[in-house]
Structures are given as C-alpha cells and as structure tokens.
Design goal:
The protein has 14 helices and two strands. The chain has helices at residues 3-8, 21-37, 44-69, 77-95, 98-122, 127-146, 156-163, 171-188, 191-201, 203-208, 213-239, 250-260, 272-291, 296-320, and strands spanning 165-166, 169-170. The longest helix is centred in the last third of the chain and has 27 residues, at 213-239. Keywords: Cell inner membrane, Cell membrane, Membrane, Transmembrane, Transmembrane helix, Transport.
Amino acid sequence: MSDHALSSAPGSARARIPSVPGVAVALVGLSVLFAVASPGFLTAGNLSNILVQSVILLLLALPMTLIIMTEGLDLSMGAVLTLASLVLALIVVATQSLMLGLAGALCVGLAFGLTNGWLVASLGIPPFVATLGTLGAAQGLALIVSDGQSVVGIPRFVRLVYSGEVAGIPNPVLIGAGFYALFHVLLYHTRFGTYICALGGNREALTLAGVKWKRLLISVYMLGGAMAGVAALLMTARMNAGHPTAAIGMEFDAIAAVALGGTSFEKGNGWIFGTLMGVLTVGVLRNGLNLMAVPSSVQVACIGVLVIFALFLDGMRSKKS
C-alpha cells in the first residue's frame, strides 16, 4: 500500500479540521469576561505576559496532540517535566554548564518517553494505566533527587533564557513559535505526520504498507518526553530554581488545551493551530483568575471544569462525525 493511499485514508494528515468554533468561543468569551472584571487584563504588558507564560504549556501540548492522535495519552508529562527540571538545575549548579544541564533534562525526558512507548506499544498496556505508573515513578524520583527541597543557586545565564529578549521579542515566545512551526511541518508535510494520523485512524493500512507502527508509536512518546526536557529549561529559568512539585498536574492543562483545540481522542484527527488556541485559552483563564486574586485551589477546580468542557466538546464532535 503506497504512502498516497495512506494519506487519502481516514485520519490522514491532509484531513485537517477546518474550524473549531468551541475553542474560539471559549477564548473570546473568557477574554471579554476578564477584560470587564479586571481593568488591567487588556494592557500590553499583561497580554505579553500571557504569551510568555503559555509557552511552557505549549511545549507540552504540541507533542500531547500527536500522542492523543494515536489514541494514546501521557499522564506522566508534568511529573517528567518536574524531574527533568530538577536534574537540569542540579547539573547546572554543579557544572555551570547550560548544555550539560539541558542534555541531562533531555535524557530524563527521552528515557521516560521510551518507557511509556514500550509499555504501550510492545506490552499492550493501556496508555492511561502505563503513563499513570510512570507518573508515580517520576514523582518519586523527583523527591529522591531533590530530597524534597528546592534546588537553588541557578546561574544568571539560565535565567536569561526566560527573561531575555531578541529584537524586543521575549525569548520564550521565539522558542514557542519555533517549535510550533516545527510541529506544523512535522504533522502536515512529512511522512511521519501521515503515519501518526494513521496510527489513530488506520493501523491496518500501516501494517499493509510495511510500516513498523510499534516503533513509530514509541517514537511519538519519546518526542513527548524530549519536549518535556526542553520545557524543563524554561521552567527552571522562570522559577530560578528546581522545585520537586513545580509542574505536577500540568499534563491536565495540556490535555484540556488539546481537546479544546479540536483534536479527537479517536480516528487520528488533530489540529495544531487548534492546540495553540487551546493553550492560549488555558493561559487566559489562569491569568484572569490571578488578576482577580482567585485562590490557587479554586483555579485548579476551574481547570478541571475546563477539562470536562473540552471532553464534552470532543464527545459532541464524535457524535456529529
């Protein structure tokens, strides 16, 4: 079976979702709500702040989109990000080398991505169960390597990764834009993207085409782990430290953003731009609640409601299709 046949099959990369009105309504509605409730919401400084603070979530949501398109899930992503951030902080403080720290974070992410992929693809363990187990492992290791304490003493050159600018554009925004473009090309203009869609919509076609789909599925989870390693650099630079609970639960924000953006949990249908809009929606929600001095516990509950709303939208899309 040819690549052309794969690309024309249901769930191919060329079958893009033309519009996702749900996420647009949510983004505009929340923006209007917070603009009325908080006069400082629409200031240039605050809008820039939303963009910068949303980048870390975007780095998780982009690979989460691909994982969900394969009818998978990665609940360990936030815990892996936390562990990778701690490893990066420990290495940078000890060696004063940003590259060594980033390499350590990437190794952590790739190791967990490989483990997740192997459990799901080779052993056939459901993604929810497999990644729930690795979530616990990553959380435990984070507490072990840090002894439950924050890692401080981060050098200034690390902090500049988050706080610096190029031509007036914040570094995180440039990094986020670069990875967004990379994933857009990867999904829509490469064989890899076509195969990812087939993983969720037509695995039989991959088998007939001679594609080793188990290796492909493992590589998708490894990509998610690698992106958690990259996000660890921004997380550490933003917090000026490594914290053993820094990103716990962030995977739910990523899942909410992806589902809001129109990516379906079945049939390999996904939309990268929709994921970007979903990330901005989550960012607007968190920022607006902060401006209104809403307690963090209530914010978590609001994100939970957003996740339920996102899954509701996905269910409605599935019924219509």
